[in-house]
Amino acid sequence: MVGAALVFLSACGSPGSNAPSLAGGGPAWEPSGPADAGEAGADSGARRSADGGSARDGVGIPKSTHVTIQIQPSDFGAQIEASIRAATKSVHMTMYLLSDASIIDALGALKDAGKDVKVVLNQTFPPRGGDNGPAFLKLKQRGVDVVYAPSAYTFTHAKTVIIDGAKVLIMTMNLTQTSAGNNREYIATDADPADVADCESLFAADFAGTSVAVGGNLVISPSGATPVDARDRLRALIASATTSLDIEVQSLSDDGLTEAILLSHRAKISVRVVLSGSNELTPAQQESIAKLKAAGVPLRLVMTPYIHAKTVVVDGTTVFVGSQNFTPTALFQNREVGVVTDAPTEAKKVRDTIAKDFAAGASP
User: Fold this and answer.
1) Facing residues of 248 across strands?
2) Which of 14, 23, 142, 334 has the fewest other C-beta atoms within 10 Å?
């Protein structure tokens, strides 16, 4: 049975500042492109061997049920802002890059109204990679409880917003002035109580600068944050494809996930790979692309919108959305959060969007 599969590449990331060593700390970041000027940079270029078993080794694929997905560009982030402003009790945000004045104002307004508003921001960025200093100061001036992320993660690259302890936005998108208007982004709204509880645990630990591990359904980085690490969860998801595999990711340089894509292609799953046409690729990314091309996997480059996505769709029915790029640093060393759901209507929306981007791309 042969289906269709797509992959998109690019990257970004940054270190934190004020906490003791946590599990999985170390250098880690991802490159980005001009459509989101606050997120320029490049991944480390390091490779990690495909250890830990075959890409088809039977690792379980936990799935969440109460998940919907929004695709950008569509509403310039209006739905996200509305969700924040509608909070009745609390907003807990972890953000790699925050510069959107409307979002900052929404957080300040909630604090003025006596709500529980806390923010964890990434601090140190790669060259030309962004600056959370202005947002940090503005939030402080509004009385919002804001801290810089733990220094054990060279980059806290997660993009999550927990609202009223009842739902969590798990996003590929930073909250900048341009992300929602210029980039291909995916925003998963997850109302699974166990997922929300795990995100609250992660947030509380990062806010306090302590370590924590959770055992639920989410795809969490760094390694050690969950019993099964992010790479093995994503490898298992890719390996589960029987008819189609669609992957749209900003940056690809991890050997294990590259091999998983190749194995799917060799198993007669139709695999299409779409890359951002706006990035200067690292040697490690070039190597992964060369392997896919040599195996005959179709490749496309997309210039517009800027591909900042990190998503996988399997058989048109199961979808991953998260902050993880397919790089060793993102999978093993950054703070990252993703979710997998088997809601077929949400998977179809994402797959259809990837197919449209593939059709608009050019061969490298």
Assistant:
1) 311
2) 23
Examine the pLDDT at 30 and tell me if it is beyond 70.
no
Domains of the chain: 34-61+219-360 (3.30.870.10), 67-208 (3.30.870.10)
At 160, which amino acid appears?
T
Q: What is the pLDDT of residues 297-354, one digit of tens each?
A: 988 888 999 999 999 999 999 999 999 999 999 999 999 999 999 999 999 999 999 9
* CB 327 within 8 Å of CB 47: no
- Helix H or strand E encompassing 84: helix 78-85
Q: Are 164 and 39 contacting, i.e. CB atoms less than 8 angstroms apart?
A: no
DSSP 35: G
The answer to whether residues 104 and 98 touch, using CB atoms and an 8 Å cutoff, is: yes
- Tallying the residues shown for the chain, one arrives at 364
Alpha carbon distances (Å) from 327 to 49, 250, 309: 11, 10, 14
Which pair of structure tokens corresponds to residue 118?
A: 């806390």
pLDDT digits (tens, 9 = 90+) for 196-229: 999 999 999 999 999 999 999 999 999 899 999 9
Q: Which of 243, 238, 241 lies closest to 2, judged by CA?
A: 243
Would you tell me how many other CB atoms lie within 10 Å of the CB of residue 240? Answer: 16
Spatial separation of the C-alpha atoms in residues 171 and 311, rounded to whole Å: 10
Q: What kind and span of H or E run contains 297?
A: none
CB 121 within 8 A of CB 98: yes
Dihedral sign of CA atoms 219, 223, 224, 228 in order: positive
Please state whether the predicted TM-score (pTM) of the whole model is above 0.85: yes
